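Hi there,

I know you've been waiting on this one. I reran it after we fixed the sequence typo, so this is the corrected version. Both the input and the resulting structure follow.
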Amino acid sequence: MDPFGRHIDYLRISVTDRCNERCLYCMPEGYKGWAQRADHLTADEIVRIVAASTCLGFRKFRLTGGEPLVRADIVEIARRIWDLPGVQTLGLSTNGLRLADLALPLKQAGVRSINISLDTLDGTAYRQLTGGSLVAALAGIHAAAAAGFECVKLNCVLLRGINEHQIIPLVEFGSALGMPVRFIELMPLAPGGPIDNRHFFPVAEAMARLAAHDPLDAAHDKPAGHGPARYFRLRRSGAVVGFIGAVTCADFCETCNKLRLTADGKLRPCLGRHGEIDLLDALRSHPNTASALPDAIHQAVANKPENHAFADDFAVKRPMIAIGG
């Protein structure tokens, strides 16, 4: 339990801050944090941290980045985590560009669910926003559908003036594949870039736009999953949509159950606050001390704040890509 009575059992693990895209809301221009490769966790170190966390009651894990699929050993990491006693769920978040080749190996390694970023179905806009290829992303999405994961979800960051006209097409695209689309509010985590508060589009406005197209009903039969999304079903089409209102929902943090592990070995209790616990020191300076990792994880749980600081003129110290999705 954290100081506010929340049961913390979910660890999101950034395996790299490298990415094969440069999403304008995630990676600031000129970011090269990965240049300090000696500071980044090895596969052995990641598995050691997960093993220590399972002993403390963590059961849910998600591999993120950067883009986790740019790591050559990502399938090995997934397999080794899934083989650990106590691991109940293993998910992965990706932009999908390498999923065409890796979806089936990841499924066979133990990954149960996949979240795939898809902010637009317009190829030109996709290229401008991410620097990547929509064709490759769509191939990855279809490969994920064919691989038989327990759940595949599509994530869209809402951006005023850029993709709000894509809300209904994205829902229809996801519904045709049996994939819920989650609409996510822009968080202030990419300073100095071309995306800023002018582009903020609240989930309430997205919900109203969808409801005008097809009424929304709370999807009580849809499992909430391990994150903060709230799910609805479109009354006529049956499509399932989720909304993640990190900035505008006052109770967003009430049931937060997660910690984040950065690629350079910091344990972060909250995405929207700066406090971090250094696990790299526990791993490398005290490799033979059995209590070093559990003590550091306990400290991170004890340091978990009641809520984020996004509404308090949050001053970014690490961009999103350096924290992990």
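Quick highlight: The mean pLDDT is 89.

Best,
R. S.
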